[in-house]
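Justification of resources, computational component.

The compute hours requested in this renewal are based largely on the per-chain cost of generating structure records like the one below. Each record pairs the submitted sequence with a full structure-token output. That output is archived, and it is also reused by downstream analysis tasks.
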Amino acid sequence: MDNFSRIEIFLAVADAGSFTAAGKQLNMTGSGISKQIQNLEDRLKTKLFYRTTRSVSLTEAGELYYKRASNALSNIKEVENELKDLQATPTGVLKVNLPLSFGINQLAPAIAEFGAQYPDIQLDLSFSETKVDVVAGGYDVVVRIGAAPDSVFKARKLAPCPIIVTASEGYLAKYGEPKTPEELKNHKIITYTGKENQNTWTYQKDNEDVGHVTFSSVMKSDNGNMNSHATKAGVGISVQPLFIVLDDINDGKLQWILRDYHSYPIWDIYALYPADRYLTQKARLFIDMLVEFCKNLEVTKECRGQHAA
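The structure output for this chain reads:
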């Protein structure tokens, strides 16, 4: 028996806690399992298990070997899966979660085209304004808006997501235009309930100190499109993503105010997947498609133009 197979047997025994239980899993006898573990210990010149008549437990050396061997075996299997993926037609279920407003208003055409291009992939899409549990929900890809994600995820940036302050011309004519963030305290503010600290805006101007302003809500909702309609109607001032209001700004329906200030920290839009999970071919193709499509979004072009200026 080769050493690779012995390592698999070692891991099975460590997980099962006995030679007999591991033997049942691997369709081998308990004595056969014991012999291969002994051969592995002889080769390594160290004892991997403490043995009793009914169970086994890892020695200190066994604990170290288990940790390194399980990681190595996982990496090898991941590479094998990747190689199989390269030779196969992408197929099966692809479960994706996306923000409601961005997913429907910006990404829907690209996702539909992806579905037509890969008919053997069964897209399972959900749209929500609240964060989902990626692992518990079994999601292959999640699109999220916010600051850079933590290390439990691998991420690819799709687009910038500046958070800006807007108001209608009618509102500004009636109530005046705030010239500093602090003046928002004296205005009617429409807030987004999907954000933590919805009644506080954290901002920065150039490289100056970060500031905070807290205000009350004249209206609040969990949907950016609803807030945009209310802002256009003159209900109040809103603080929300540029991609939601950019068309209305360009059409003159909304005014971008406090332009010298930006939200802190900087937000972007990312495609995420768990760092410890193998990225399937269908998930990789989907993320690649999103990255390419988002290069030509109006919000991306707008931000690119601002940086160029």
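The mean pLDDT is 92. The domain at 3-87 is CATH 1.10.10.10 (Arc Repressor Mutant, subunit A).
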